Each structure stands twice: as C-alpha cells, then as structure tokens.
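Lab notes, practical 5.
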Amino acid sequence: MQDHRRYHGHIGGEAESLAFPDRASGEEGATSPRAPDAFCRQLLIAVEQSPVAIAITDLAGRIEFANQCYLEITGYPREELLGRTPAMIQSGETPESVYRDLWGAILAGRVWQGELLNRRRNGELYWASEVITPVRNDQGKLVSFVAVKEDITERRRQEQELRLLATVFETGQATLITDAEMRIEKVNQAFTDITGYEEDEVRGETPRLFKSGRHDKAFYRRLWQTLLETGHWQGEIWNRNKYGEIYPLWQSITAVQDEMGEVRNYVAVFHNISERKRMEQELEHQATRDHLTGAYNRRAFDAALRQSVSKANQDGEPFALLLFDIDHFKSVNDRHGHEMGDEILRRLAQRIRESLRNTDLLARWGGEEFTILLPDTRLQGAATFAERLRRQIADSRIRGLSVTVSIGITAYRPGDDADRLLSRADDALYRAKKAGRNSVVIHTEPVEGVQEGPAA
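Output from the prediction step:
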C-alpha cells in the first residue's frame, strides 16, 4: 500500500498543506530524491489552476483547501473560507433531506453526486453540480472529503426555457423560433393553423415573409430597438397569411441568450385577435355612430371638431364646417308617418356619404340636422361643394318625395374654438332658412375675397 506525503507550499499567496501519494517508495516516476516534492507541487498547482471548483474539508466539513475557481464561484476570499464549513454558502432553498442523504453517503464512504442551490457572498443564488468523494488513509480510515463543483446556473436557466418552450409548443399559442439571424428554425401546429404555412415551407425564411404592408419602417425600428435594449417586445401587429389575407395578432418576441450573453434564438408567441378587433370595432361603431343613419353621432363629431381646431391652431391647416337640415321635415312626418321620415333620413345620409371624400366626416347633429367636417378645405371650396350637394339632393326623389336642404357654412379662422365655429355655422343655417330654404349661406362676417350671403 502506498504511503502519503504531506506537502506544504504557497498557492495564490496563501500557505496550503495537502497530502499526496508518496511516489518515492516506488520505482516508476522517481527520477531523483526530490521527485516526490516536485510532483506534489506540480499537482497542487494543477488543482489550483483547474477550471472546475475544488475544495477539501475535514470530516467535520471544515474547509482546509479551496482552489481559485471555487473562490470565484462562491465569491469568498480564501481567508473567509478556510476553517469554515460549506454551510456558509447554503441558500436555505435546498431541502434538508438532500443534505441528510449527502452526509449519509459520504460518512459511509460512498461518493455523493447531485445539484445544490447555493448563495454567493453577494447574496446571489446559483446552482452547482457537485461530486463529493470520501478520502481514506493507508489504514482505510476516512480522513477528508474532496468536493468538485461546477456552476450550472446558466444551464439550468436554459433547461427551464426549453421546458417552457416545450410547454408553449403544446398549447394553443402559435410559436415560431428563429436563429440569431432571424431565420426560422421551428414552428408549431398552432402557427400552421393561423398562417397556413407548414414548417417545411418557412424553415430558413425570415418573418418578413408575413409582412402585411400595414406598418411603416418606423414601427419596425421601434420594435427592434425595444427588443435589442430589453430582450423583449410585445404588441399588436398585422401580418399576411399564406393566402394573402391580412389579420391582426397579439405577439410577444423574446431574445434567448447563451452563457456568454449573445443572442442565440428569438422566440415569437402570438395569437389571432381578429375576433377581438371585430368586437372592438363593433363597440366603437355603436359608441360613435347614429344607429338610424350610420352617420357619426354628435359626441363623435364634437371630438373630431375639437381635434381639427387643435391641429389648425398648431399648423394652420384649413378646414370648413357645414351645418344643414331637411326642409319641412316635420310636415313629412305628419303627412307620411315617422317610418317614412326615418327612411328619408337613412337615404339622405347614404347619398351624402357617396359625395364625400374618405377624410370628410358626416354626423347626425340631431333630429333632421346634419353636419359635415371638410378637412383641408377653404371657405370657397366648401361653398362650391355645398351648392353641388344641395342641387343633387333637390334633383333626386326619395320614395317618390322631393327633398331639399338648407345649408350654413363657415371655415376655420386663426384663434377659433369649436363653439365659435358651431355658432357661426348655426347662424348661417338660420339665414338660409329665413331666405326661403333650399339654399346655401356663408356666414356673414366679412372675409377677404368671399361673397357674403347665399352661395346659390
């Protein structure tokens, strides 16, 4: 049986004392009387410089030696570790049963291997994979324990992410995984159900394949800026499926990093929100539209008018306002009934909408009164439009009845507010009725280059 020689030396500026096999008693490897000491020193240096953490304790668990890697993992300087037990790095998160099994094994002379959740000197938790080996002397008596540990915190994090991804893949959430260059590597069945694409059709492609054209470059710049700065982005985005249909998604994108902090993958999880958007639009329609005519209601018009005033006050963008009502509408209701009156309101609103631009806004102001907001329109242009509209209505018949309208016009002036505009439009409408109805009147306040009074 080999003897052991205890070597005393200095490693990392600290005195260390370790027992190593005495090779001087054998022939192999003994080239001189000093060979055993040289071998011990070489072995001690190798242990100290090992890329894995190594510690040696006595039978009571008191630390007798810890190499540099062990110090780096735990965050403790050597002088704070020596003579202390590993209890100082315990987190309190590992079940006591694990430590009972550990001590039961090594005191019985068996090797123990497992994973422990420890705490660094700065309080940070970390996972360690440890192998603890009992050491016996020449007589077979336990004299110490050697612990070899590896920080597996990053590995555990990645394993947790993979388990999470596996769970997500089995749920109804559509999932797409790309490499660091955004090339698609894997998708799940929910992805195929939403997009129409099978995995082999998109593998190696980038998500640009799904762009709908609904978002500008600034949208994607903001998305990428957030993703690069925080590692995560979520929000509403419109995509195009395999069949050319555009649909809204709620999407979450996460950057997955490797142990060096470099992005390894991007994971996008999304679901189709078309039904939610449809319901939102329906609710918005109900909240902002007149249920009879489909025109905007007074509340929605008030908001649009105030927004137009605010914008005009900032950048001077012109707009005009028309206020009109149906002539002798009460007589129509009295002679033909409210059902006929409602039909006239619906038909009239539809004909007016057909004459408007996409940017114009028609609202039912109340009863038989309507109002039109004309963006980017000056007073004379509004007068021309109003006269054309008046003639179109007068020349047509609704359910065999002739219908005419009276229209009052005003336009934005610097310093205006919404109430002042409405007051001027209402005054012009009053004058149109007083003039005999079926006419267009511009508000009477003098405006350079505009003829006051009826536009007809």
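Observations recorded by the TA: The radius of gyration is 42 Å. The first helix runs from residue 35 to 48.
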